[in-house]
Amino acid sequence: MFLVLTKVTVNYLLSLPAFVPFQSFQSFPLFPDLFCLPLPSIINKHDMETFDYSQVPYGFGLCASADCPKASTCLRHIALEHAPVKYPFLPTLTPQKLQAMKGKCEYYRPNKAMRYAKGFTQLLGSLTVSVSDTFRWRLISHFGRKNYYLARRGAWLIKPADQQFIIHLAKECGLQLDDYFDDYVDGYNWGSEKVSFSDVISYYYLIGK
């Protein structure tokens, strides 16, 4: 999934339902052109042991609830605990919303890492000419044209459910491989919230390795 940002949508994206507006980053420099941002942040090897706040997406809603039984495994609470001193005001779940949910949190975001696939160019090279068009158009129908081409070259990470869809389709086309994807990366699933430009720069630096 991609989040498209333009100058027109910036003001809308600076606020999230049920979260205090994130005023500290309103002066964050924005690129003027239309572009797409991959949502999941990449987890480096060391990040699995030590939480790195720099990977928290811009505008990601946080939670300060101290008595939540899931606080120790929730990215919203963990991120708040690791927030640097230079960010005094952050988008935080309001006390009113916490009370209204009555212990049944609808914003819980587990800190369990997911294995994302990156690219499937080798798979495409293994398809026969007779089925390659069918395979391509089926995936375009599933992902959309733009996301298909980004995913194909590894510029858009493929979540586990979509990996299974691609594998199933490849097998339908008569292809049996030991591995169907070019590479894999571990990442948190932050959900469909805003992401920072620094995340994008870090992301493209990582996928370029």
Strand content: 5-15%
Q: Sum up the overall morphology in one term.
A: elongated
Helix fraction by DSSP (H/I, runs of at least 4): 25-40%
Radius of gyration: 19 Å
Low-confidence stretches: 1-48, 193-209
Count of helical stretches: 8
Kindly name the structural category. Answer: alpha+beta
Reported for the largest beta sheet, the result is: 3 strands, antiparallel
- Report the mean per-residue pLDDT as an integer: 76
- DSSP E strands, number: 5
The order of strands across the largest sheet is 3-5-4
N- and C-termini, Cα separation: 22 Å
The SSE order reads EHEEHHEHHHHEH
Fold and architecture overview:
The chain contains 8 helices and 5 strands. The strands form 2 sheets. The protein has a 3-stranded antiparallel β-sheet with strand order 3-5-4. Helix 5 crosses helix 6. The longest helix has 15 residues. It starts with a strand and ends with a helix.
Layout of helices and strands, plus pairs?
Elements: E1 2-5, H1 10-13, E2 35-38, E3 41-43, H2 75-81, H3 95-101, E4 114-118, H4 121-126, H5 129-143, H6 145-153, H7 160-172, E5 183-188, H8 197-207
Antiparallel strand pairs: 1-2, 3-5, 4-5
Helix pairs in contact: 5-6
List keywords for this structure.
3-stranded antiparallel sheet; disordered N terminus; 209 residues; two-stranded antiparallel ribbon; elongated; alpha+beta; 5 strands; disordered C terminus; 8 helices
Short summary:
With 209 residues, the protein is an alpha+beta fold. It is 34% helix and 11% strand. Strands 3-5-4 form a 3-stranded antiparallel beta sheet.
